Amino acid sequence: MAKCDICSKDINFGLKVSHSNKKTNRAWKPNVKKVKVMEDGTPKSINVCTRCLRSKKVTRAV
């Protein structure tokens, strides 16, 4: 599932609009990676979006 466990970023739905102005449904998914994170002193594997990784909201377990 494309959902960040840190910021709860989720799939957004909208319309794809063609040149002839015909509208069809589409979805925008966040860039989510499965990452090992230190949580309460133990390594844990969670889904984190790349924005949370880049802004250092989580600390990776090495």
CATH architecture, by name, is: Roll
The total count of strands amounts to: 4
Uncertain stretches of 5 or more adjacent residues: none
Silhouette: rod-shaped
- Biggest sheet statistics: 2 strands, antiparallel
Q: What's the helix-strand series?
A: EEEEH
Fraction of residues in β-strands: over 45%
CATH superfamily: Ribosomal protein L28/L24
Percent of residues in helices: under 10%
**Average predicted confidence as pLDDT:** 94
Q: Strand order within the widest sheet?
A: 1-2
Head-to-tail CA distance between termini: 25 Å
Domain tally: 1
What is the overall number of helices? 1
- Using only C-alpha atoms, the radius of gyration works out to 16 Å
The CATH topology is Ribosomal Protein L24e, Chain: T
Based on secondary structure, the structural category is: mainly beta
CATH class placement: Mainly Beta
Explain the overall architecture.
The protein is mostly beta strands and 62 residues long. It has a single domain, classed as Ribosomal protein L28/L24 (Ribosomal Protein L24e, Chain: T, Roll), CATH 2.30.170.40. It is 8% helix and 45% strand. It contains one helix and four strands; from the N terminus they run ββββα. The strands form two sheets. A two-stranded antiparallel ribbon has the order 1-2. A two-stranded antiparallel sheet has the order 3-4. The longest helix has 5 residues. The mean pLDDT is 94.
